[in-house]
Amino acid sequence: MSHKHPDDAANVALLIDAARQGEPFNGRHRIIDTYGRTHMVLVVGERLTANDGAVIGSQGFYVDLSDFDEDGTVDAVADFTANRALIEQAKGILMATYDISAERAFDILVWRSEETNTKLRKLVVQVIDDFTTELHVPPEVRARRSLAAHRPSPHRPGGRAIRGAGQ
């Protein structure tokens, strides 16, 4: 907490409490960079858990709001939200394609972004584009993946059919 502005310690403590309770968290506060400059930031995050449910950290984003006016802040939050939605969509594509967890899909996206020196937003847009325009799924496979035909999987205990689907 040494980089948090001292006057914002109470607000930051509330964010930490929310995270400890398992709630997603967000808020604005000031941080002090290594040069002693103060920045207003927006933080949005959530707890990061292992497959067994154990808390292993947090994940989220900081947006430096120092150069934004109030209208710019709204635009920055909207842009951030749109990027988050793209990341979630790309994760879903990888999860469905490779039968992997959400955490593993995100790890792969981050790894590939770093390996190719490509911004994550650009990479996820490319993944979405590749899988939605370049990948040609045969109609019989598409029919098996249809939500309207969804049935509990014999390979996944506890799978539930969509109520009323296929009846």
Please name the defining characteristics of this protein.
single chain; 167 residues; alpha+beta; Beta-Lactamase; Arc Repressor Mutant, subunit A; 2 domains; three-stranded antiparallel sheet; 46% helix
CATH fold group of the largest domain:
Arc Repressor Mutant, subunit A
CATH superfamily of the largest domain: Winged helix-like DNA-binding domain superfamily/Winged helix DNA-binding domain
Shape: elongated
How many runs of DSSP E, i.e. beta strands?
Answer: 3
Radius of gyration based on Cα positions = 20 Å
What is the correct CATH architecture of the largest domain? Orthogonal Bundle
Number of domains: 2
Widest sheet, order of strands = 1-2-3
Q: What does the average pLDDT come to?
A: 76
What does this structure look like?
It is a single chain. Helices cover 46% and strands 18% of the residues. Mean pLDDT is 76; it is low at 156-167. Strand 1 (25-32) and strand 2 form a beta hairpin. A three-stranded antiparallel sheet has the order 1-2-3, sandwiched between helices. The chain starts with 8 loop residues before the first helix and ends in a 23-residue tail after the last helix. It is α+β, with helices and mostly antiparallel strands. It has two domains: 1-67, PAS domain (Beta-Lactamase), CATH 3.30.450; 69-149, Winged helix-like DNA-binding domain superfamily/Winged helix DNA-binding domain (Arc Repressor Mutant, subunit A).
